[in-house]
Amino acid sequence: MTQQAPSPPPPAVRDAHGFNPDDFEWIPVARQRRSDGWTPQRQREFIEVLADTGSVVEAARAVRMSANSCYRLRRAPGAEGFAAAWEAAIAYASRRLVDIAFDRAVNGVEDAVLDKDGAVIHLRRRYNDRLLMFLLRAHHPERYRAADDRRRVIPAGETESAALPAASAAEPAALPAPSAVIPDIARALDALMPVCPPDPHMLMDPEDLENLIFNARDD
User: Fold this and answer.
1) Fewer CB within a 10 Å sphere, N or C end of the chain?
2) Extended strands (E) in 63-209
3) Do the beta carbons of residue 51 and residue 84 sit within 8 Å?
4) pTM passes above 0.70
5) What are the pLDDT digits (tens) for 86-130?
6) Residue 55 belongs to a domain
7) Rounded-to-integer distance, Cα 43 and Cα 57, Å
8) Whose CA is closest to 61, among 40, 76, 46?
9) Looking at the predicted structure, is the pLDDT value of residue 3 above 60?
């Protein structure tokens, strides 16, 4: 009689974030042990600093990891949540560039005027009118782009719509509302962790739960 091979075990049930709840300790802190030192808390701290600074080097330094280690983790199998949070952090940090552009357009930048020996004679503040107009057109296209169009001379026999230039690939489009392009950092950080069940304490042995809570208080 031929013995049938045992059926393969059913695949593990994953939560909404792609985690197997059985791999984690729910109380007091959900954590997945990794051999590379990237604890969930360290991942969250990296993403938070990256969102604030936009710098991978600074974020890596803040969690005492190398930048190469950060990139390796982002490429690692099963790190899709970390990669998504990384992208969200960079998108969030891009708002800082807009703030810098506005500051330079309004306040200008200082240039040092040097003498023939290289010594600073005085500082001269320089303003960038092109940057100013770009920001105005980007944030108020209904007002400032229309003004540009009205200044164009329409040749005889040509309709106004035909005289309007086609959108140039080099000309940036109006900036969308921040809420439409900036991901929710808090949501991205939550996705790095498993979904907490309604009553996580009910999943654990009462004695184990008591020990974990006791140890958490000591920490």
Assistant:
1) N
2) 109-114, 120-126
3) no
4) no
5) 988 888 888 887 888 888 888 888 888 888 878 878 888 888 888
6) yes
7) 14
8) 46
9) yes
